Amino acid sequence: MTDHGPQPVERQLPTEEARDLLALVRDLVQREIEPVAAEEEEAGRFPREVFRLLSASGLLALPYTEEFGGGDQPYEVYLQVLEELAAARLTVGLGVSVHTLACHALAGYGTKQQQAELLPDMLGGGLLGAYCLSEPSSGSDAASLRTRATRDGDTWVIEGTKAWITHGGIADFYTVMARTGGEGAHGITAFLVPGDAPGLTAAAPERKMGMKGSPTAQLHFDGVRVPDARRIGEEGQGFAIALSALDSGRLGIAACAIGVAQAALDEALAFTAGRQQFGRPIADFQGLRFMLADMATQIEAGRALYLAAARLRDAGLPFSKQAAMAKLFCTDAAMRVTVDAVQLLGGYGYTADFPAERYMREAKVLQIVEGTNQIQRMVIARHLAGPESH
Question: Is there a catalytic annotation at residue 370?
Fold first, then answer.
């Protein structure tokens, strides 16, 4: 008879500081996030106070430099923090990943003056960011975006609509890609738009399968005026900035996926250890034990893959291919693991009284956001076999 159940994840962390950081995150998760996650997701409530707490604790700024209020942590550590947050509630883990994505352009391509003026509040001032690339008619084909910014003296006037924006309507700032030149990737420029800019409005949030606590909405730019001082990088550099951000963002999605998968495995382990059938725990039956073994193996493989990509990034080496591989593998694994968790719980897994069904619904979106998994396969194949011939 088994008496085993879920065990804490054994993490390989580079420093004692990192171990202390993960302990802080686990304490915060147990006190502030886990106890209300199911109830708040069901009610569709966004945990803004949690994000203020994360900001005050330095957890919205982990991979950025201390010079502007960042945590100066390697991606290897930051991603494991994301995994812990996503395991407790994906709305929080993905929200931190999106905020980090929204800060990437200014942190990586802004002038020293822009960074000194704006980054401290973005990283640790209680603000929340969003990233605006997709549009109603340009998702996977992001280079065909139509939102346009037209110069008017020292300002730019933005017109258009962005779609599928996480934190749309509630963010304090938006990193926006808009067309300032001709067609294609070279005509796009990045801007940092305040959330309260006149002419900027949000549609009603999308009604989604999962992540109901995280608002996803269209944004309408109706003559939104942005000073040239809030243009990030050079004119026409926006698409390169966007792709650079997405390479890092895909690692964030991979880590979130492993967090959700780990939470599903833990739920399945606890249930199968405690559920008795035919006079013994169902975790004693070989068919179920093999499912648990496969789930755990996929999670460990996914974690190793995203951490390997993170270490390349931390070393300043190319990691685009590995980021695409991690996003592809980890999110597909999360889908398989969460489906199996529902199966292991039987009828209970199909009810909202247990979190397994929520994990399954949430895992699906991770195969779609920040480049569908079909796009990831295209990226990987280009690294292996070169660009497609036309």
Answer: yes
